[in-house]
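User: Assemble these into one structure.

Assistant: Restating your components, then the assembled model:
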Amino acid sequence: MRRLVFLLPVLIVALLVAAFWRGLDPNRDPSALPSALVGKAAPAVDLPGLADGAPRLQLAAFKGKLVAINFFASWCVPCRAEHPYLKQVGAELGVPVIGIAWKDKTEASRAFLAELGDPYAATGADENGRTGIDFGITGVPETFLVDGAGIVRYRLAGPVTPETLKGELAPAIAEARK
Amino acid sequence: MIPELGHYALVLALVMALAQASLPMVGAARGTRPWMQLAKPAALAQFGFVAFAFLALMQAFATSDFSVAIVTQHSHSQQPLIYKLSGTWGNHEGSLLLWVLILTIFGALVALFGENLPPRLKARTLSVQAMISIGFILFMLFTSNPFARLNPAPLEGDELNPLLQDPGLAMHPPMLYLGYVGFSIVFSFAVAALIDGKVDAAWARWVRPWCLLSWTCLTGGIVLGSWWAYNELGWGGWWFWDPVENASFMPWLIGTALLHSALVVEKRGALKSWTILLSILTFGFSLLGTFLVRSGIITSVHAFADDPTRGVFILALLTIAIGAPLTLFALRAPTMRGGGLFAPLSREGALVMNNLLLATMCATVLLGTLYPLLLELTTGGTVSVGMPFYGATFVPLALPLLLLMAVGPFMGWKRGDVRGALQRLIAAGIAAFGAAVIAIWMKTDGPILAPLGLAAGVWLLIGTAIEFMERIHLFEGNAARIWTRARHMPRAAYGMSLAHFGLAVAIIGMTGAAAWKTEEIKVLQPGQSLSLQGYDFKLESVGGIRGDNYLADQAHFIVSADGEFIADLYPERRQYLVQPMPTTEAAIRSTPLADLYAVIGEPDGKGGWIVRVYHEPLVSWIWFGALIMVAGGLTSLSDRRYRVGAPVRAGATQVAKA
Amino acid sequence: MRRVLAVLAVLWLGLAPALAEEAQLADPKLEQRARDLSREIRCVVCQSQSVADSDADIARELRVLIREQIAAGKSDQDIRDYLVARYGDFVLFDPPFKASTYALWIGPFAVLVLAGLVVVLFFRRRAQEPARARALDPDEQGRVERLLREDGTEGGT
């Protein structure tokens, strides 16, 4: 019994080392915050349309379809970088992309899309940023996958790049289609 | 050329360390004197080589030799010399070299001043110390070479992080490492004793000065970090329970426990296995801190690097360095027989309680620090553990400790008179109660911990003073007798009183600053003012100034109260040459009663500036209290008993065998 | 991808205090509530800063949101729940007391109790040990030697 007590320190250390070993997994990003919404119903989206004279953007209109929601802004540098790849999400993977301009002046967002092209199936303006916070974004750009039943299936923080497109979005889309 | 020589010196140090780690250990096992005696020259040579390497690196920084990679990454030719020099340790590789330098310094000190040590113990201790060196030098040579070159060499560097360009932060790492790494020698002594199979009072007496030195430096190092944060970060805070702050606090808590339990081993021959365990764990926590900072496993404002290979290496180092001694502990410690008997209500009993509370406090901090990681790895959930957790768990543990600290010194060894002690402390009790009442009266809706903390601090303050005055018979009125008693009292006793007193002062400061801090934020145009706690802060002007390697917006505040001039404050917002982030230099006016703290932020584009002012009562008591604690540690260290080595009465070692 | 975000976060971070240029609430009591609450909420992209202290865009948005909701009459707990629903428990510096954090909150108390038990057992065992011939501790050894010396015989072994 007494011997067991003396073994306690080394056992605790062994457990901690095992935990640290797992914590050092190169695939783990200690600063990443997983989305609290994955697996839950997507918040309602009801925003003024971005394009001139466009109808309001409502997520309910896309019910029954798998869609991607992309938060962007004209003042956001990585958003420019990811823009060409957004087309691929629609074209290659067959998932329509909804664009929401977050904390951006409507004219600036329009100019942004005019300059870089409009890959979106629909767009909306979230000028006061509340919809973004409803989705729990930590900044822009961020992209969410919402399935036909309105459940958030995946969240990509940061820009869409060839790597994340192939490595994260594509598998997530395939999973959501099952 | 010199960096290459430095690199080569490191390799030579490794060779010395290999020799020092192996031969003396074998020699001690076999009783071969020449092999045991090899430890001393090897330790000195190892120190010499590492010191050369360190100076070589420092020279590269001082001369802005941008062909050395880390000089380019962390220095700039227009920096003031002090920050060029402190840049040597302001980065991962250089700070590792500092780590190893201090390791070898302590090894060399034991080699030089350990003449009275039994040869076997000395040989084994230096051998273990060298093993730690080997681990860290290998880590440097394989993953974090300070002397890596850049070819072609850039014309200019990327500049030391502006946050580090501050005198407090220049001194924080060396001081901290002296503490952190100083406990390595205590660790080595403990492992040597385990290998020997024997722990006795003499061992405790040899170890205590090293423990004391490390503790003193660690106290200073931690407080320097806090002081820097207060001055530099711009929101008047000085402790955030950040994982890396905690990583330096845990060795301090366990080191304090060790200091006290070693006392019991020395005086009464009891608590041996526990003291050995603490010796191993204190340095173990230092290594844990190294791991947390440098492996990238936790994000923190302090974190150096996020390179997984480095993380794996340090984890391996950690596992071997802590796992092996703890296994040895599990095997050997049960056979160690305890010494003197004592009643639970005695000085030993009080020290056991001290250890119990400190160990629990340390476990609490460990739990809070690692919980987010452990939760994430098991359930994937995320949680944040911040100040509220520690306020609810750590502080309630600290309060009984503070209460005990005033009583303990009154207790005798073996059997103490608690009632008598409490009777003598009545004055302290009254003062504490009074302080609590004042605290509640001053802010009736404040946190409950404020009056409690203040009361505990005052209790300890007055209680320590009473104990000291009784010891020199102050109340008996005979001046000559008092003077004689005061002169003959051992320095270690002064040290204890100073250290406890200093802690009380610091606790009072911490309570005041945390509980009664007030702030005000406003956008001000020059000429406008804001007021806080009866003080009027008028923004006179904001102008541009230029420093050695920065441009700054400097504001001029005139502070007055009831129309009377109090102070001029000049907070700055600096933009350094290369790094994009601006840093704030707060302007602080300190008095023993409170600090007035002004910070200037961004311009609002319309001629106005965002301004933040704080009123923080009793903050300077924290720094002052810490200074007294460090003075206490140094006073104890200067005690003659430690300087003469370890005078051992002939019979003692043989009788007190395990 | 994550690197870019991290670099952005660092650039925005600055570690300089986020001096709030957004509008403050008119009522000082409400404004104080807003500030206190902002200090409890963790900035989701920074390294352990509160939204009160962070320069990040999202931190600023959350500060504005907190003020809006306070002005709209929501309670502190309502606002906390709102944020936790969107960002998870991570966003609170005060870990909630729920199944996933029982170990955290009960831990310190448990350690204290266990350690206390160990100490009690330690004293119990000591008291029960028969008064067999124990090794003399250093103080006692010294006294023995002194007494022996006084006796006229040579002290020590």
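Residues 201-232 of chain B form the longest helix (32 residues).
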